[in-house]
Amino acid sequence: MCTTDNGGRLPNYEPNTFGGPAQNPQSQEIAAQFRVEGFVGRHTYSITDEDFDQPRALYRLLSPEEQQDLVKNMAGSIAQAQPVFQRSILPHLKRIDKDFGGRIEAVLKQTNPDL
Q1: pLDDT mean over 70-76
Q2: Is 85 helix (H, G, I), strand (E, B) or coil?
């Protein structure tokens, strides 16, 4: 049981935009030994275009009307976030599909031209 404020409203995840906790490559967990087959450890990962294949296929499967509904719904939700987060999601949306990301960006810029 935690008896402190447990970090309060500070972010408790990594990576984050507010200077919160970050992974320390010099430390690693020391765990009890147990038998496994294969490789075990911490591994970095990188995001590739392959990570966007499924949402890209889904977007392209939608009718133009369904695509517009999706853009409207997503842009409406994203518009409620702080601009720093709006800017950070746009490159990912454009990797799904340039048209998709561009359309969401256009909607967001209607309320935040500095985006």
Answers
A1: 97
A2: helix
pLDDT in tens, 79-96: 999 999 999 999 999 999
pLDDT, tens digit (0-9, with 9 covering 90-100), for 93-107:
999 999 999 999 999
Neighbours of 113 (CB within 10 A): 7
Structure tokens at 65: 């009307």
> What's the Rg (C-alpha) of the chain?
20
Q: How far is CA 79 from CA 8, 62, 71, 88, 114, in A?
A: 25, 23, 12, 12, 13
Angle at 33 between CA 28 and CA 36, to 5 degrees: 100
**Residue 33: which pLDDT band, with cuts at 50, 70 and 90?**
low
What is the CA angle 104-96-65, rounded to 5? 55
One-character DSSP codes across 35-71: --SS--S-------GGGGHHHHHHHHHS-HHHHHHHH
Q: Are 28 and 42 in contact (CB under 8 A)?
A: yes
Report the C-alpha gap between 59 and 92 in whole angstroms: 14
